[in-house]
Amino acid sequence: MIELHHSTHSTCSQKVRLCLAEKGLAWTGHHLNLRRFDQLRPEFLALNPAGLVPVLLDGGRVHTESRLINEYLEDAYPQVRLTPTDPYVRARMRQWTRYADAVATEAIKLPSFAKNIQPELQRLPRDEVQAMIARIPDARVRARWHKAATAGVTAEDLRPALAQLADMVERMDRALAEGPWLAGAGYSLADIDIAPFVQRLVRIELFHLVEARPRVADWYARVSARPAYRAAMPPAGSEGSQPVA
Ligand SMILES: N[C@@H](CCC(=O)N[C@@H](CS)C(=O)NCC(=O)O)C(=O)O
Questions:
Q1: CA angle at residue 189 from 141 to 49, to 5 degrees?
Q2: Using an 8 Å Cβ cutoff, are 182 and 95 in contact?
Q3: How confident is the model over 159-213, as pLDDT tens digits?
Q4: Measuring from atom 20 of ligand 1, which residue has the nearest CA?
Q5: Ligand 1: which residue has its CA nearest to atom 1?
């Protein structure tokens, strides 16, 4: 049995849900409300001491890190292939999955916090919030929550992240000049691991970055028309209408 500990609006969880949906795998979900700090509950920390979603269990065995989870699913459930067979194209795919993991995941966080989390966080009782934030295991994650809960994310704070996200879209544009999908001819884990970040750009009103690159806008239209995307990704507007999800 596959179980996924995840959060609806977490881009890392979305990567894994997309992969599961493309492969047509059945899974049982355990939803965490990150804005209420479910990720700090002892039972979740026992699965991932970093206090981060997603966590996938398969036959009771624990997997963390969304990129590695998708690679595991690809190895364990090869019936639907999401990895190119050609070694060069496969290496290109891995450039993208690594980029999503190392760059896009961090870059999207501050703009997402500013738009989706900060307004609600600042309305919660300050002492309670600070006590929860003090328990966050990772210093960088802790600092981000602290900033959002206190002074708030400023335009100056956002500048480096926005530059990285604009660069991501430019990289995508260059890759898509060579083929319909990020790694070339076939839809792959490259597209899956990047799609949540592009959706987030759209949802936090940074769509102009995508609109300015017709090849990327066309890629996003094709990705978001896939049945798996509709099954795995939250509907438009749900970030605001679901303030504690
Ligand atoms: N490299 C990790 C990053 C996981 C991560 O940052 N997860 C976020 C959601 S996208 C999280 O759990 N945040 C909890 C928090 O900020 O306290 C992965 O790809 O799985």
A1: 30
A2: no
A3: 999 999 999 999 999 999 999 999 999 999 999 999 999 999 998 989 999 999 9
A4: 65
A5: 65
Pocket test residue of 10, 35, 52 for ligand 1, highest count of atoms within 8 A of CB: 52
The answer to whether residues 115 and 162 touch, using CB atoms and an 8 Å cutoff, is no
66 lines ligand 1 (CB under 6 A): yes
Q: Is residue 171 part of a domain?
A: yes
Q: Which residue do the tokens 């609109």 mark?
A: 211
- Residue pair 2/17 in contact (Cβ under 8 Å)? The answer is no
C-alpha to C-alpha distance for 72 and 194, rounded to whole angstroms: 18
Q: Which two tokens stand for residue 121?
A: 């966080």
| Confidence (pTM) | 0.95
**How far is the C-alpha of 145 from the C-alpha of 148, rounded, in Å?**
5
Could you say which of 57, 76, 95 is where a domain stops?
76
Of 45, 76, 107, which marks where a domain is finished?
A: 76
Looking at residue 233, the DSSP 8-state letter turns out to be S
